[in-house]
Amino acid sequence: MGFILFIHVTVCVLLVVSILMQAGRGGGLAESFASAESMFGTQTNAFMVRVSTVLASIFFVTSLVLAFNASKKERSLMTNDRLLPKAQETKQPAVTVVPVTPAPAATAAPASAPKP
Question: Residue 61: which domain range?
Answer without folding.
Answer: 43-71
